[in-house]
Amino acid sequence: MDALHEKNLALRARLRGLGRLAVAFSGGTDSALLLAVAREELGGNVLALTAVSPAFSARERAEAEQFCRARGIRQLSLPVWADISDVFARNPRDRCYHCKRALLERLLTEARAQGFETLAEGANVDDLGDYRPGRRAVAELGVLSPLLEAGLTKAEIRGLSRSLGLPTWDKPSCACLASRFPYAVPVTREALARVEQAEDYLRSLGLRQLRVRVQGDGARLELVPEDFGLVLSRRAEIYAHLRALGFATTALDLLGYRTGSLNET
């Protein structure tokens, strides 16, 4: 707890020293803590910038907007599909770099137009342990990562978020929907919508942490093992629903949910 307290103090001191700050805000646990603490330390000198595209679910966008409204934080939502659609169509292995670069350039342009010279994003220490080509774009553009600078892990971010009463403290991880597609498979608006609808349906059954990974013309479900029983007990219904969405087959991944599973090869 002493170490976490010191990290919290370091984060707050860093944010106070910035004076004014724009935050790339997705609505996830990490960027929510960053934005909430920045609001406490900088008051009205904080701006939330949220990228809007078919790769980010409508549910996530709505939750991000509610978070800002509840805290009186000014938020701007910026359409970015035109900036990233070509990269998604090619879907190279370093897609995340090109996408992140385009998104951050768009957010930086808007931040500066609004009088904010500094942009921050919510990477944490755990993000260093996976294949994250987007980190290169962050470094190239001089975007800050205050949570990472403070040495905060995902578990510590959840702990601090809980202590602050943030509704995102136990929010399941929810990466960009493009992460459901193998590299080199074109990612279209229609394909993203199909994945979003499938995941929304599964959440309506009571599942929380999940991924619907595209595998050929089928879907591979990644769930926490505790949810296997629920899915198997309703397998006929789930198969029929996903088939109606356009998935020819539905498979259950026995290794369960894990981040970056498409990077395993």
Give the structure's gist in a few sentences:
The protein has 265 residues and is an alpha/beta fold. 49% of the residues lie in helices and 13% in strands. A hairpin with a 2-residue loop joins strand 5 (210-215) and strand 6.
- Give me the CATH architecture of the largest domain, please: 3-Layer(aba) Sandwich
- CATH superfamily of the largest domain, called what? HUPs
What's the domain count?
A: 2
Strand-and-helix sequence, N→C?
A: HEHEHEHHEHHHHEEHHE
Number of alpha- plus pi-helical segments: 11
The level of helicity is 40-55%
Describe the structure.
The protein is an alpha/beta fold. It folds into 2 domains: 2-163, HUPs (Rossmann fold); 177-263, Alpha-Beta Plaits (2-Layer Sandwich), CATH 3.30.70. It is built from 11 helices and 7 strands. It has helices spanning 2-18, 29-42, 58-71, 81-90, 95-113, 134-141, 146-149, 154-163, 189-204, 228-233, 235-245, and strands at residues 21-24, 46-52, 74-79, 119-120, 210-215, 218-223, 250-252. The chain has a 4-stranded parallel sheet, sandwiched between helices. The longest helix has 19 residues, at 95-113. The radius of gyration is 19 Å and the shape is globular. The termini are far apart.
SSE diagram, text form:
Layout: H1 2-18, E1 21-24, H2 29-42, E2 46-52, H3 58-71, E3 74-79, H4 81-90, H5 95-113, E4 119-120, H6 134-141, H7 146-149, H8 154-163, H9 189-204, E5 210-215, E6 218-223, H10 228-233, H11 235-245, E7 250-252
Helix pairs in contact: 1-2, 2-8, 4-5, 5-6, 9-11
